[in-house]
């Protein structure tokens, strides 16, 4: 056997080294359908050039960020809180702030009755809304526009349109002795019958007939107020007439009948307001029931229930 020479061994080792180096320098094979594997150290997020073609059709785009809907159980109390803030703002004559507050309230709860009523008053033309017929009223010591709106317009929260009707910029600044306009006709006051000019015989029926004729007119006026749907006005009218003529039984019956109708109406409205979580409106209705009927047990219990719920909502949502 022939032993290779040293030169041959060196040549073979050189060839082997060259083959190893060549194998290391060969790029890895690419997978079909790809553009080639990234080289070590190369950036994988190189910006596209100005002339680069658009992305291939069908490539997934970034998902749009969706706004999560507000839970109605959270939105309604927030809307109620904003509506009450708007009441305070309007009481102080800050209509601009109230507009923004009411817009946020309606966005949260479009069914919020108080926010809707206040917005309508802001937009309304008071003269067209309340009419040109009015009577003049002298403000008493404890009067407020809310109280007068409840008595004559049937809703304490209509104070703002009453303020606009009288060009009062700040409803909270109502002063005793101030004369304002109240829309509608002034409730009639029953005058006491004049005493006869001369004594009449006991059996003469004319002195008794005269008051009855006047009472017929009084009852007719009260009936007109009832038919017009102005139960508060009719009740005030009958109360005043009955106080002036305590011996007239029919006036007392009419007064008590209208009071029962008012209690029933306010009870229904308070229940509906409570179901809508308009707690302040519900409480005001039950307050009026207790003014009409202080012994009304249901109104007292429901009012306490609404106050308790309002307190718990205030603790949970930070309302006043």
Can you describe what's shown?
The chain is mostly helical. The chain has 3 domains: 72-123; 127-186, LysM domain (Membrane-bound Lytic Murein Transglycosylase D, Chain A), CATH 3.10.350.10; 206-317, Serine Threonine Protein Phosphatase 5, Tetratricopeptide repeat, CATH 1.25.40. The chain is 57% helix and 3% strand. The protein is built from 12 helices and 2 strands. The chain has a two-stranded antiparallel sheet. α2 (72-91) runs antiparallel to α3 (95-108). The radius of gyration is 42 Å and the shape is elongated. The model is unreliable at 24-59 and 205-212 (pLDDT under 50).
Which key phrases capture this entry?
12 helices, mainly alpha, Serine Threonine Protein Phosphatase 5, Tetratricopeptide repeat, single chain, 3% strand, Membrane-bound Lytic Murein Transglycosylase D, Chain A, 3 domains, 57% helix
């Amino acid at each position: 056997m022939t032993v290779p020479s040293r030169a041959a061994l060196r040549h073979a080792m050189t060839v082997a080294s060259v083959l190893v180096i060549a194998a290391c320098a060969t790029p890895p094979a690419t997978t079909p359908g790809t553009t080639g594997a990234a080289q070590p150290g190369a950036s994988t997020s190189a910006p596209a050039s100005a002339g680069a073609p658009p992305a291939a059709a069908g490539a997934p785009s970034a998902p749009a960020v969706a706004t999560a809907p507000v839970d109605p159980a959270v939105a309604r109390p927030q809307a109620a809180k904003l509506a009450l803030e708007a009441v305070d703002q309007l009481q102080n004559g800050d209509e601009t702030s109230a507009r923004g507050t009411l817009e946020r309230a309606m966005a949260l709860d479009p069914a919020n009755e108080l926010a809707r009523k206040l917005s309508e008053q802001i937009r309304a033309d008071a003269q067209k809304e309340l009419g040109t017929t009015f009577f003049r009223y002298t403000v008493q010591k404890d009067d407020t526009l809310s109280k007068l709106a409840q008595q004559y317009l049937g809703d304490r929260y209509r104070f703002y349109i009453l303020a606009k009707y009288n060009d009062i910029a700040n409803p909270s600044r109502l002063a005793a002795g101030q004369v304002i306009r109240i829309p509608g006709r002034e409730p009639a006051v029953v005058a006491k019958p004049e005493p006869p000019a001369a004594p009449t015989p006991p059996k003469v029926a004319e002195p008794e007939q005269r008051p009855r004729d006047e009472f017929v007119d009084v009852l007719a006026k009260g009936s007109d107020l009832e038919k017009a749907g102005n139960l508060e006005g009719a009740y005030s009218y009958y109360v005043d007439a009955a106080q002036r003529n305590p011996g007239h039984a029919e006036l007392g019956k009419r007064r008590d009948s209208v009071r029962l109708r008012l209690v029933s109406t306010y009870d229904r409205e308070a229940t509906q307001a409570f179901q809508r979580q308009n707690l302040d409106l519900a409480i005001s209705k039950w307050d009026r029931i207790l003014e009409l009927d202080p012994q009304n047990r249901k109104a007292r219990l429901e009012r306490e229930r609404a106050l308790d719920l309002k307190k718990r909502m205030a603790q949970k949502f930070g309302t006043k």
